[in-house]
Task: structure prediction
Amino acid sequence: MAEEKTVREKNQEAAKKQAEAVSQQKNKQIMEFNEKFEGLTKRNQDYMFHLNKALAEKDYAEREKVVSEMYNELMEKQKQGVVANKLYGTVNEKVEAILAGPKKEPKMPTLWELSLDNGLMIWALFCIMYAFLGMFSKSNQNAANGGIITLIVTSIVAGVGLGYFYRAMMPGQSKRRGWLNIIFMIAILMVVWVAAFGIVAIIPPTINVVLPPLAYAVLAVVAYGVRWYLKKKLNFISPADFRRNNQN
Result:
């Protein structure tokens, strides 16, 4: 038992010495690298010292490269009176940003992404409307609600139309396409929408079936759930968010 304890203690002591040696070696590397911060103001040197130490503690592989680039940038910026805190934020904020990697530029959504997103939104809105109309117009439900084919056509045509409109309004797109071209395409979509409704109107109710209010309510929830899932899965970004990100 005494022998077992001695062996265990020896192993713990060896592990402790090894950890101390690694720590000392790391601190030595940090101190040697910190000597390269000559020429910076005392405030900027202090910032770089703590940043370098924090990255070393995180075992960040590109530490020397990143710190060297920041040092060169600071050497230029401090001539204009710029300090590291103003340029990079706090040490913790900068370390987190470095570890997270470069920020991805927002991707412009494609036409089909916008069309699908808006189509699902229109589907959910019309389902909610049909559900309410059906509940409050039980005596004449067919007149109050559109059928399932009307719902499908409305969602597709409006989804594509809104998708095209939002994409055309994206930063830089309106200038490239030209306002006359955009107005012309929107006019065509409106004509298609009116024509589609004219065709749907002649479809008999036996085919263009009107669903009960509860069914429309369920379809609205499903559409909203699918839209939410696709936004997460396909990383959809709304036009408003895209504009905001580009402005920032």
Summary: The mean pLDDT is 76. Residues 65 and 71 are 10 Å apart (CA to CA). The chain is about 75% helix and 0% strand.
